[in-house]
From TrEMBL:
SUPFAM superfamilies: C-terminal effector domain of the bipartite response regulators (SSF46894), CheY-like (SSF52172). The modification 4-aspartylphosphate is found at residue 58. The lineage of its organism: Bacteria, Bacillati, Actinomycetota, Actinomycetes, Kitasatosporales. Coiled coil: none annotated. Keywords: DNA-binding, Phosphoprotein, Transcription, Transcription regulation. InterPro entries: CheY-like_superfamily, NreC/VraR/RcsB-like_REC, Sig_transdc_resp-reg_C-effctor, Sig_transdc_resp-reg_receiver, Tscrpt_reg_LuxR_C, WalR-like. It comes from Streptomyces flavochromogenes. Pfam families: GerE (PF00196), Response_reg (PF00072). This is Response regulator. Residues 153-218 form the HTH luxR-type domain. Residues 7-123 form the Response regulatory domain.
Length: 219
């Protein structure tokens, strides 16, 4: 890209938004706005026609919305880097943007300097997420890890008998053998036997590990 301006297409169905973005971007002498588009279909055509380096793509547009246009842009203009720019910061939109090959995600209240940084980063081949979008991604990844851990825990406890699951659930509540026995109308010795059996089946070293497993499994 050395010596050549970064060629940008702005796709938004609101003329005033496009004008504002154009004004911000053209304040940087190394960025050139080569076309504007009012919908996703126009964005695909303009990107291909002008060999754009970066596309700023709104989500909510007529004819073809931004998230639907993004896969088409990746197919028809694979060299173009797409930044989704929207007022909607829901985490699902962030993830769909990344899943479809988007190079960035910015909210429309992004500061002008950050918008320029994002365009430059995308043109250089880097991904750029606003701080708000980054938080969404981190939260979803954390949720994914929790979901995976819960699925694994459910798989491990699936082999327990109904009574063993009852005992494990009380371990998860932190009950002693004596208190669990009272709740289940068993003797303390019987509960102790169940606990030993549960630890062996679940390959847990102690009742604390078993209690954590019970929590992860949702017992």
């Amino acid at each position: 890209m050395a010596g050549q301006p970064i060629r940008v297409v702005i796709a938004d169905d609101e003329p005033l938004i496009r004008a504002g973005i154009r004004m911000i971007l053209t304040s940087d002498p190394e960025i050139e706005v080569v076309a504007e588009a009012a919908n996703g279909r126009e964005a695909v055509e303009a990107t291909r026609a002008h060999a754009a380096d970066v596309v700023l793509l709104d989500i909510q547009m007529p004819v073809l919305d931004g998230l639907s246009a993004l896969p088409e842009l990746r197919r028809s203009a694979p060299a173009a880097r797409v930044i989704v720019l929207t007022t909607f910061g829901e985490r699902d939109n962030v993830l769909r943007t990344l899943e479809h090959g988007g190079a960035g995600f910015l909210l429309k209240d992004t500061a002008p300097a950050e918008l320029i940084r994002a365009v430059r980063a995308a043109a250089a081949g880097d991904a750029y997420l606003s701080p708000a979008a980054t938080r969404h991604v981190v939260e979803r990844l954390a949720m994914g890890r929790e979901a995976a851990r819960a699925e694994e825990a459910r798989g491990r406890v699936a082999g327990l008998s109904e009574k063993e699951r009852d005992v494990l659930a009380l371990l998860g509540e932190g009950l002693s053998n004596a208190d669990a026995g009272k709740r289940l109308h068993m003797s303390e010795a019987t509960v102790k036997t169940y606990v030993s059996r549960i630890l062996a089946k679940l390959d847990c070293e102690n009742r604390v590990q078993a209690a954590l497993l019970a929590r992860d499994a949702g017992l």
